[in-house]
Amino acid sequence: MRQIITASIISYLIGSIPTAYIFGRVLKGIDIRKFGSGNVGATNALRVLGRWPAIAVLALDILKGFLPVLFLGNFFVQRINYLPQETVRLVVGLSCIAGHSWSLFLRFKGGKGIATTLGVLLALAIKVPGLNIVLALLVLSWFLIFAFTRIVSLASIVSAVLLPVYMLVFRQTFTLIFSSFILCAFAIIRHRSNLRRLWQGKEHRIKF
């Protein structure tokens, strides 16, 4: 039990690193939460900081989920041998996402967690047989919805809802299916304000 708690705390702290907030402070001396949508994620970084900082924020937020699940997961899988390895990696991944969404360094506020979730799923797909198909379909779904609507939040919400559907269709383990419902709930909770704006027809579209 102590090892699981340690893995969760370390992963949460890594996830809590507020990438977009740091970039805003370093590049423009601003608190990104006071500009644009107020979110500390890649989409708001694109609006406020520009294209290349946003790409860097996106990449780092993905890595916040990918690296802990892959490398911390390897470390703790060897020590927590009474649990399946995918369960240990999921604990690490969910802790990273929770850290990003409710960051210790931002008084338990944070981003929507979509990029970090993608990083978690990428790492899991490397270690869990058959998950790469689910991930490929999920990414394809996101890009198709975004291509037609240019609305990041809509693509993210629909993809989050599709995640447990794909898990069920491709007969993943109970642990993965259950976790996919948790991830779906995470995404919907974090996108509540976006859902209101979508309903009102006021959600922002990305323009190129």
Layout: helices, strands, pairs:
Elements: H1 2-15, H2 19-28, H3 42-48, H4 51-77, H5 85-101, H6 114-127, H7 131-149, H8 152-169, H9 174-190, H10 192-200
Provide keyphrases for this structure.
single chain; 208 residues; mainly alpha; 10 helices; 73% helix
Structure description:
- It is a single chain.
- With 208 residues, this protein is an all-alpha fold.
- It has one domain (2-200).
- Helices cover 73% and strands 0% of the residues.
- The chain is built from 10 helices and no strands.
- The longest helix is centred in the first third of the chain and has 27 residues, at 51-77.
- The N and C termini lie far apart (49 Å).
- The model has no long low-confidence stretch (mean pLDDT 93).
